[in-house]
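Supplementary Methods. Inverse-folding protocol.

Structures were first reduced to a discrete structure-token string of length 354. This string, shown here, constituted the complete conditioning input.
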């Protein structure tokens, strides 16, 4: 098992690559979607949260990430002595109608296929994605973690419908007519996922890229009046069974699974790692269950992180583990300190089980 760090778009620079290397990471997982460029409620410095207007504007709909752009970033990462393990998330600008079953769906799926081919050609092995209409919404920030550290959590459900022009907690059309996104049924959403997997998995197989699905964060049957797909551990299997392939796998988020009201996080880690369906792991800790939970320091929540590492090791998981999120520590560099703390813990944990 290998230690990695997730970096947001604005962190893709030499200094952050060195920080990861200094903390003992060998791999990076990077976000190319910019969650922070335009929302007044969602400022850089920590993981994105934001109010009901979401994370602001999605990217340029006419411009998917090019082969040149991907290889340039990979080269810089390699120059810092690190490997690029995964790109995390598609831009809502590039797949809103795949999620919403809208008129641009066919064109967008063709563009996503080109993107996957470019990612494969650039030698990047994994793409993480989250097939969700509402996206990561409904969370709040507060001094929830040990020593009054600022962390993220949830204080009850969020049912307020999404404004028109929004999907995946971002705005893809700022000129959309007033109104709300019509509520889909769970069956419709599963059918949209099936379309996505049927189209994408064969291309991913050819390109040598693994598609890795993140569960719904927060894991609830419905958020912002839209259904969700993977909000119980058993629903991972439903997703995998839609299109069985070694390239159809999971971005296994331990924190999100621990927040699920049903099921057992250790059993889920056991099941999916034994079946070799874990592409990479988000490993953070949490207290409580959705819609009432708080993220905690890695050693301080309800998850026995060492037990998770032992299960992964026993089942031969050889991929990358990243801290996902960490509480902000009170100092001049709250994000860095929080991540360094989590990485140090994981580094020792991996040393102990490897
Ligand atoms: Mn996660």
């Amino acid at each position: 098992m290998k230690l990695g760090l997730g970096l947001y778009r604005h962190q893709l620079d030499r200094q952050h690559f060195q920080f990861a290397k200094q903390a003992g990471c060998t791999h990076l997982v990077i976000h190319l979607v910019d969650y922070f460029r335009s929302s007044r409620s969602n400022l850089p410095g920590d993981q994105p949260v934001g109010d009901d207007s979401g994370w602001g504007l999605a990217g340029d709909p006419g411009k998917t990430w090019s082969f040149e752009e991907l290889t340039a970033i990979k080269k810089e990462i390699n120059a810092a002595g690190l490997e690029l393990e995964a790109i995390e998330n598609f831009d809502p600008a590039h797949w809103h109608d795949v999620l919403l079953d809208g008129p641009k769906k066919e064109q967008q799926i063709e563009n996503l296929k080109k993107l996957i081919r470019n990612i494969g050609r650039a030698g990047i092995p994994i793409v993480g994605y989250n097939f969700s209409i509402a996206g990561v919404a409904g969370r709040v920030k507060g001094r929830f973690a040990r020593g009054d550290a600022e962390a993220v959590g949830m204080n009850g459900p969020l049912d307020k419908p999404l404004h028109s022009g929004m999907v995946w907690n971002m705005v893809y059309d700022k000129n959309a007519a007033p109104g709300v996104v019509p509520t889909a049924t769970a069956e419709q959403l599963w059918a949209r996922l099936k379309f996505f997997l049927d189209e994408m998995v064969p291309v991913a197989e050819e390109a040598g890229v693994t598609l890795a699905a993140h569960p719904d964060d927060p894991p609830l049957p419905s958020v912002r009046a839209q259904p969700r797909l993977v909000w119980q551990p058993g629903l991972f299997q439903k997703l995998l069974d839609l299109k069985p392939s070694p390239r159809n796998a999971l971005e296994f988020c331990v924190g999100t699974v621990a927040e699920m009201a049903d099921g057992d996080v250790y059993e889920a880690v056991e099941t999916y790692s034994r079946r070799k369906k874990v592409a990479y792991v988000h490993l953070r800790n949490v207290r409580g269950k959705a819609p009432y939970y708080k993220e905690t320091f890695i050693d301080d929540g309800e998850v026995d992180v060492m037990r998770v590492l032992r299960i992964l090791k026993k089942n031969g998981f050889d991929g990358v583990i990243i801290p996902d999120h960490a509480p902000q520590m009170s100092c001049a560099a709250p994000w860095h300190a929080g991540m360094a703390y989590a990485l140090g813990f994981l580094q020792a944990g991996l040393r102990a089980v490897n």
